[in-house]
Every structure is written in structure tokens, then in C-alpha cells.
Amino acid sequence: MLTRLILALENKELEASIEQNFAPSDIQVECHGQQKNPWHNAVQSCGDIIVISESFIPRPVDSSINQLNNLPEAPTTVVVHDVDSSEKHARLMAAGADVVLYSRVSLNNLIDTVQATLESRLQLVEFNHLARKKGPQPKLNDFISNSETMQLFINEVQLVAPSDSIILLLGETGVGKEHLAKAIHAESPRSSGPFIALNTAALPEQLLESELFGHTSGAFTGATRARRGAFELAHGGTIFLDEIGEMPLHLQTKLLRVLQDFEVRPLGGEKQIWVDVRVIAATNRDLQKEVELGNFRKDLYFRLNVMSLMIPPLRERREDVPSLSRRFLSLYKFKIAKNINHISKPAMTALSNYEWPGNVRELMNVIERAILLCKTEQITLDDLPSVFNTTSRQISPFMAPVIENVAFWEGKTLPEVQKIVMEQVEGAYLRMVLTKTCGRVGEAAKIAGIHSRGLYGKMKHLGIRKEDFK
Q1: CA nearest neighbour of 352 among 326, 378, 315
Q2: Residue 133 confidence class, pLDDT cut points 50, 70, 90
Q3: Region of residue 176 (phi > 0: left; psi between -120 and 50: alpha; otherwise: beta)
Q4: Which of 187, 343, 348, 454 could in theory staple to 379 by disulfide, Cβ–Cβ 3.0 to 4.6 A?
Q5: What is the C-alpha to C-alpha distance for residues 123 and 192, in angstroms, rounded to an integer?
Q6: Phi, psi of 31 (to 5 degrees)
Q7: How far apart are CA 210 and CA 219, in angstroms?
Q8: Could you give the CA distance from residue 10 to residue 103 in angstroms, rounded to a whole number?
């Protein structure tokens, strides 16, 4: 994250000297001492370190400094006073100031003290970052696979992970694009920096620009304080832009400028802010087709497409279903606190033969649900959704090897086979639209072109739960 140093000093020359000293460094400096209401500006600045003259602090000083300390950023407060008094110094420290300075000491001493404060702040940020990273972190070893297709893909990823190049991750919903982005970040030289993820499709267009680039106080109605954007938060690390294909065209133009110069301008701001970030974008759309349709800028597509990586869907690497299922079983049995250690052979066969329109995310949901329903120490076919039972799983219009199994047709009438095929198709289709809408039945019904009550009825018949797609 880019460190913000806020200066609100009564002495104009002193403020300018400190600003000049830190301007070339990796610090964003804002000066408010010569502006109207410097206290108000400092409080609304979302600064990490606030250096303010004691004369600007409203009375009572104790409650005002407490207000600074309770800001969301928990800034380090440096109070500069004009009276060379140990009593004054002690009183300001007791009021909650982190550092108290006498304004008439040498400029070098003032700058050294501010520099030391900055270094302490950076150490605190790094400590908090490491504390948040406790526990298992995503890594490329998570994608170890028995599939030759996946092995070739991971070999390619390992070649680009150490670089700083922009990466475009392509693949269907649920293949693990964000998990892979985190793993690439974790094994890159930026691993000690932040990883900031933003789903560009999950936010209203009016808020997305602010989320990306930040805003200043008063930039729009309701913007009572300044706010950092995702690019500034990701300074020194990686920003992951998910569902990039959903971004509105006017924001695509602004994003292109950022990717060219790595400078962002917050909404309402006058200055550009330089940021040092690696960009990983992801989409489940065909961006070339979106460019042809006029929904995506061609120049932005070329800028993002420095290195594109297509993650194979789960149905193209069925060899991985058993190992992934066992991994998720180990993960969720502790989370749910149930002593379940095995998956029966028929259940594993059903899992391996399934089409997986929702990919790895759907597999995770199925295993978690099975653990919740399981009454023994082994997951059986009865613990899986009805789409996995013997009749409904044995034929799929998407699985030629199964269709060609003539033995399956024996003993069944044509209407019986048609019914089985139709249920399999409906199940695969409904899972696809529910995955796309994250379990929102109303939206899924609109996509499917049927009434929501009809969709609920089909879901009940096929054993599909909306909760499994949230």
C-alpha cells in the first residue's frame, strides 16, 4: 500500500521543506497547512501519518487527538508545537500524540524524526500483513495434477510467475482463476506485498471507478472522507481484476491509461498518483469476440494480453477429480468437525463421470454437502445429489464414451432413455445458470426463459440446491 504523509503545518516554509524532502520517495505527500480549515482536511485525508501544528488542533486537544487516533486508518500522529516546554510535550503525549516535536529544532532533526516515523509505520504495516497471512497460503503446488493438459499449463505458469508482466487468466466459471492469481503472487518477488482482488462485475458502475482509483473528500454526494482505490492499496504487490470483460467501456479507457503509465487519479483529485503494481486480470468471456462486438476496447485487450493463460475446465482433466475430492474431504471434515475419511468407489466413479459445468467450485460444494449429509465414516452415492445416482449419471449428451456404451441401452425403452437424457441435460444446464448467477433463482429463471416457480420445481426434482452455488 502506498504510504500517505499528510502535512498540516502553520509554518509555510517548514511544510514546503518537508514536502520537498519526501517528494522523490515512495511516499504520497499532501499539504494542507495553507488551505482553509487544515484540521478538517487532515481528518478527511485517510492519511497514514499526520504531521500537524498544535495550533490547528481544535480544543479540547485531548478529544481532537483521540478523534485522529480513532480514524479508520489509525494514523500515526505527529504534533508540532511552538513552545519549548517539557510540560507541553508531556501533555500532548498524554493526550495521545505518537510523536511531539518542537518546531524550532533544526530542519534536519525534524526530517529525521518524520523519516523514523515513516519507517516505524512501514514496519507496522508489514507486521499486520504477515499476521493476516497466517495459515495455509495458495501456492502453485495446489495445482499439481495427473492430467497432462494441466501439467503443461502449470509449467507455463511457473515460467511467467517470477516476472512483472501483466497476465490474463481465461477459463470457465469455477476453474480457480482467483486461487491461481493468489498462487502466482505468492511465488513472485512481490509476495511480501499486498494482494488486492476486485470483482469488476460485482459493483455498480457508479462505485466501480471509486473502488478502482479512489476518491477525494467531496468528490461526489456522500464522499465525506477521502478513500484509497484498489490500485493504491495494491502498491508494492499485485492487483487482481476479476471479470474484466464486464467492465463498462468508459472505465476501460481509464484503466488503459493506468496500465500504460501506472498513474491513477482519484475521483475529484487534481494530482496523478504513481503506483507500483503487477496486474492480473481474469474473465470467462471470449474477449476477442467481445472486441468484435464492440463491448471491449481493442487497445485494452492487446495491453492485457501480454501473457494469456487458459485454465483447463475440470471435464478435460477428469484424472484430477479423485485427488481433488480427497483434498476437499480432508479440508471440510475438519471445518465441519465430522470424522469422515473415505469416499466409496461407486461415489468416486459418479464424481469422475460427471460433466462439472461449475468446475472445481462445484466439486467443492458437492463434497461439503456430502459431508454434511453423511451419517457414516464414508461418503456414498446416497450422500451425493440425485443427479449422481445410477440412472441419471450413466448418460450425458456431452460424454461420447458413455453414449457409445451399448450395454446401457439394453432393457430400456426409447422413452425411458429420452427421459434420462433430458434430466441429465436439464441438470447440467441449471447448474450452469445457477453458477453464473451465484444461486440467484430469479436471475437464473430469466436466463433459462422459464418462470421461477418452474425452475424451483425442476431443482427440487433433480436435487439441486441454490445454497450450493452461493
Answers
A1: 315
A2: low
A3: left
A4: 343
A5: 12
A6: -110, 130
A7: 10
A8: 10
How far apart are alpha carbons 238 and 296 in whole angstroms? 23
Whole-number Å distance between alpha carbons of 301 and 313: 23
Percent of the chain with pLDDT over 70: 92
CA separation, residue 362 to residues 10, 144, 172, 313, 469 (Å) = 60, 19, 12, 12, 7
CB 430 within 8 A of CB 464: yes
Q: Name the band, by pLDDT with cuts 50, 70 and 90, for residue 255.
A: very high
Question: In the prediction, which pLDDT does 398 show?
Answer: 43
Q: Are 216 and 269 in contact (CB under 8 A)?
A: yes
Strands (E), 275-357: 278-283, 307-310, 342-343
* pLDDT score at 403: 47
Q: What global pTM score does this model have? A: 0.73
Long-range contacts of 29-32 (CB under 8 A, 24+ apart): 29/5, 30/4, 30/5, 30/6, 31/7, 32/6, 32/7, 32/8
> Do residues 470 and 438 touch, judged by C-beta distance below 8 A?
yes
On whether the CB atoms of residues 333 and 339 are closer than 8 A, the answer is yes
Residues 6+ apart with CB under 8 A from 173: 284, 358, 359, 361, 435, 436
Q: Report the distance separating Cα 111 and Cα 48, nearest Å.
A: 17
Residue 393 has pLDDT above 50, yes or no: no
State yes or no: pLDDT of 101 exceeds 90. no
pLDDT at position 323 is 92
In degrees rounded to 5, what are phi and psi of residue 7? -110, 125
Q: Enumerate residues 6+ apart whose C-beta is below 8 A from 457.
A: none
Q: Are 237 and 185 in contact, with CB atoms under 8 Å apart?
A: yes
Determine the Cα angle at 371 with ends 146 and 433, to 5°: 70
* Cell representation of residue 218: 467531496
Q: How far apart are CA 393 and CA 452, in angstroms?
A: 25
Helix, strand, or coil (residue 340): coil
pLDDT at 390 over 60: no
